[in-house]
Write a structure and sequence with these properties.
- The complex is a heterodimer of chains A (137) and B (220).
- Chain A has 137 residues and is mainly α.
- In chain A, 71% of the residues lie in helices and 3% in strands.
- Chain A has one domain.
- In chain A, a hairpin with a 5-residue loop joins strand 1 and strand 2.
- Chain A is elongated.
- In chain B, a hairpin with a 2-residue loop joins strand 1 and strand 2.
- Chain B has nine helices and six strands; from the N terminus they run H-E-E-E-H-H-E-H-H-H-H-H-E-E-H.
- Chain B folds into two domains: 30 residues; 187 residues, 3-Layer(aba) Sandwich (Glutaredoxin).
- Chain B is globular and about 80 Å long.
- In chain B, strands 4-3-5-6 form a four-stranded mixed sheet, sandwiched between helices. A two-stranded antiparallel sheet of chain B has the order 1-2.
- In chain B, helix 4 runs antiparallel to helix 5, helix 4 packs parallel to helix 6 and helix 6 runs antiparallel to helix 7.
- The chains are: A mainly alpha (137), B alpha+beta (220).
- The interface between A and B is medium-sized, with 27 and 32 residues.
């Protein structure tokens, strides 16, 4: 996810050479992308483990997936190929949606980090409870 | 005699009217475009004037949008080094072609740049648009009033500029440029074509100067 977002946000270029580049003034955006990716990498596998191994509800997974998707979508469909495809396909509706995601990229990413952080702590809490050994049995 | 007088009178009036009409035609009504101008496979006839030496061996064709943040990043971080090292030294020149797709103000801003070109201030206007770019797409920073204010800052003839912008004189020019971008597979801004003596290459995105340097040095 991290590499994908960094490519979409033009921090990494693959052609004609593989090169990383953080333009001045975009450092905060870069940090937000790293935080979203790190939290997604923690939250999503933990919830998949909960659902698959412990057969628990998928409710908490929803928060993690939602946070990851909106965090990734914000800013990712700006001037690049995704934004161009969305606007070309959906016209003015696509342009409005793209403009919204671009204009509010930073607040949306901060909200996504908040959702992922809450999901992380609630998942950790529930895993501690669900994985506790019953010493009496 | 009377008939002859009437006929002569009509002819004189017609000549005076014709002369008055031609004198009152604004300079902006004539568009001096080299319709045959191409760089590589790209028709840049409707694009910007050439920045730098027109006979430079390399041409950088930039497809951009005035509301695009990546274009702003490239304009601020990479373009100055390219201008200093390649354009001012005569090794390369640059043509800007609009891919104005991001919002309703994007085509208007592109049209405004050509209205400034009518008064030979294209690049000054281009620079002012990027320097004053706001973080919000269609947030009002490039609406008609602001575009006129930018022109006023450059001390352009406002009657000419306003009539050009309000009449959407360059609407089709901008559409033509967008079509050029689509025809050449540019899917988003920024997009570059580096056209040299031995062919052309494509670069996508606001890549750093080091990448341009490697590509351009191979061609020089």
């Amino acid at each position: 996810m991290l590499v994908g977002l960094l490519i979409l946000s033009e921090y990494i270029f693959l052609e004609p050479y593989v090169v990383g580049h953080i333009p001045s003034g975009t450092e905060f955006r870069f940090v937000l992308i790293v935080m979203i990716s790190a939290l997604s990498a923690l939250v999503l596998p933990m919830n998949i483990f909960r659902i698959n191994i412990l057969k628990k509800s998928k409710q908490k997974m929803g928060g993690g997936v939602f946070g990851s998707i909106i965090g990734a979508a914000a800013g990712a469909c700006s001037c690049g190929p995704i934004g161009f495809a969305v606007i070309s396909t959906f016209g003015s509706v696509g342009a409005t949606a793209t403009a919204f995601l671009t204009n509010y990229e930073i607040p949306i990413r901060i909200i996504a980090i908040g959702i992922l952080a809450i999901t992380y702590f609630t998942t950790v809490k529930s895993l501690k409870t669900e994985c506790k050994f019953d010493s009496n049995s | 005699m009377n008939k002859l007088g009437v006929i002569l009178g009509v002819i004189v009036i017609a000549i005076i009217a014709g002369a008055a009409a031609s004198l009152s035609a604004l300079p902006s009504e004539t568009v001096n475009l080299d319709m045959g101008r191409t760089h590589g496979t790209i028709s840049t006839a409707m694009g910007s004037p050439i920045l730098g030496d027109p006979s430079a061996p390399i041409t950088i064709v930039e497809f951009g949008d005035y509301q695009c943040h990546q274009c702003y990043n490239w304009f601020q971080n990479t373009k100055p080094a390219i201008v200093e090292n390649y354009i001012e030294t005569g090794k390369a020149n640059l043509v800007f072609v609009d891919l104005a797709f991001l919002g309703r103000d994007s085509p208007k801003a592109a049209q405004a740049s050509y209205c400034a070109e009518d008064q030979e201030m294209y690049w000054e206007y281009h620079d002012i648009l990027y320097n004053f770019q706001d973080s919000k797409i269609d947030g009002g920073w490039a609406n008609s009033e602001r575009l006129k204010a930018f022109a006023s800052n450059l001390e352009l003839d406002m009657d000419l500029f306003n009539s050009c912008l309000d009449s959407e004189k360059y609407s089709k020019r901008v559409q033509y440029n967008i079509q050029q971008a689509r025809d050449h597979g540019v899917r988003g801004t920024l997009g570059f074509f580096i056209v040299g003596p031995d062919g052309q290459g494509q670069l996508g995105g606001a890549q750093p100067f080091s990448v341009f340097k490697q590509v351009l040095d191979k061609m020089v």
